[in-house]
Specification:
CATH superfamily of the largest domain: Nitrogenase molybdenum iron protein domain
Protein name: ABC transporter substrate-binding protein
Signal peptide: 1-26
InterPro entries: ABC_Transporter_SBP, ABC_transptr_periplasmic_BD
Pfam families: Peripla_BP_2
Distance between the termini: 80 Å
Domain Fe/B12 periplasmic-binding: 47-345
CATH topology of the largest domain: Rossmann fold
Number of strands: 16
Strand order of the largest sheet: 5-4-3-6-7
Shape: globular
CATH architecture of the largest domain: 3-Layer(aba) Sandwich
């Protein structure tokens, strides 16, 4: 064996000592998650497990190389959001080798597989942890098992209470991965856009909130899935509309029958989809051309016999990417809703421009394709 030259040996020794010194002096990071738990990490997390891979979009906002942070994730990005997975894979080929720790459901999540990956952080939602609203994290066996093994867990939420929990969730995750500056820059962007919508609607009378029908996962299920309470309902209300689903559905999602929808005469129709099921549902998202998305929207309206709705007859019908609903990217959805619901108040607001700025300034995996589409008058017939 050839001896290592003294100069090379000295450099290697000094580098090793520097790494040890850095590890010894790294300041602990303490974050507060959406349950109010204070979680302490010895330093920035570099091996993160996402219990739900949909939150890769959040990592893409907060980290320049989100793939490098992943120690493991669920398989839902590959399956439920396949076009977006392919777009991410093209930019970060290493994603193909990220170990899968389960599907996107708690019953499929493997604690053993997760611990074998030696993560320094696991990220999940309260629902995934098996917690009901108001229930303490200590009552979650899943959180308990991970923390007993010395693995920090933070709980985030962009779905159940997006208006309240988005900023705390961003700070918890962004600071935990050592991206405080980038996180605060995005929070400032997010709050500026959200505040601009709220300020323009501050004097809006209750009787000027038009009925809105959000047709969730349009065309994938029988007519017609709709949001009930929380999530999209909060976004419709924030944008100055009234979600007709919330009047009869007391859970986050449910189904409305045609007679009810027709009787409520919605003045704004919004179909959602992910483009993951080719030939079914709304063609929208990564790699979809605008004309294809518009034609798909027209077919959905016709297939579900919604042509007589006031929203369709007036041309106030639209399609949007469903996955805006469980990330801070919902700021784009809210701007789009506000523009569609109150075109007089938001004539100069361009949600597509907001999306372009997000792509340019923040997203490590830009959203390239059609994520918003308008159905022009007459094209549904």
């Amino acid at each position: 064996m050839t001896p290592l030259p003294f100069a090379s040996f000295l450099r290697a020794l000094l580098l090793g000592l520097a790494c040890l010194a850095g590890a010894a002096t790294a300041a602990p990071i303490q974050v507060t998650d959406v349950l109010g738990r204070q979680v302490t990490l010895p330093g920035p997390a570099h091996r993160v497990v996402l219990a739900q891979a949909r939150h890769f979009q959040v990592l893409s906002l907060l980290a320049p190389d989100p793939a490098a942070l992943l120690a493991g994730w669920s398989d839902e990005l590959r399956t439920s959001f396949a076009p977006d997975y392919q777009a991410a894979l093209k930019r970060f080929p290493a994603l193909a080798h990220v170990p899968v720790v389960g599907r996107h459901t708690p019953d499929s999540f493997s604690v053993e597989r997760t611990l074998a990956l030696r993560p320094d952080l696991v990220v999940m939602t309260a629902t995934f942890a098996g917690l009901r609203p108001g229930q303490a994290a200590g009552e979650s066996p899943l959180v308990g098992r991970l923390e007993a093994a010395g693995v920090p867990v933070i709980v985030i939420d962009f779905f159940l209470q997006p208006m309240e929990n988005t900023v705390p969730s961003l700070r918890a995750l962004g600071y935990a991965i050592g991206q405080a500056q980038r996180t605060e820059a995005f929070i400032a962007f997010y709050q500026r856009h959200m505040r601009a919508v709220a300020e323009r609607l501050a004097d809006l009378p209750v009787d000027q909130r038009p009925p809105v029908f959000v047709h969730a996962h349009a065309g994938v299920t029988d007519c017609c899935s709709s949001p009930g309470t929380g999530t999209f309902n909060d976004m419709v209300a924030y944008a100055g509309g009234h979600n007709i689903g919330a009047d009869v559905l007391k859970s986050a999602t449910g189904k409305l029958n045609f007679e009810y929808i027709n009787a409520r005469a919605p003045r704004v129709y919004v179909a959602t989809g992910t483009g993951s099921q080719k030939g079914a549902g709304l063609a929208i998202g990564a790699g979809v051309a605008g004309n294809d998305a518009r034609a798909s929207l027209a077919r959905l309206i016709e297939a579900n016999h919604l042509e007589a709705l006031p929203a369709v007859r007036s041309g106030n019908s639209h399609g949007i990417w469903h996955a805006f609903n469980d990330t801070p990217l919902h700021v784009v959805f809210i701007e789009a809703l506000a523009h569609w619901i109150h075109p007089d108040r938001f004539a100069d607001v361009d949600p597509a421009a907001t999306l372009r700025e997000l792509n340019e300034r923040f997203l490590a995996v830009p959203l390239e394709g059609t994520y918003l589409v308008d159905l022009k008058p007459g094209t549904a017939r």
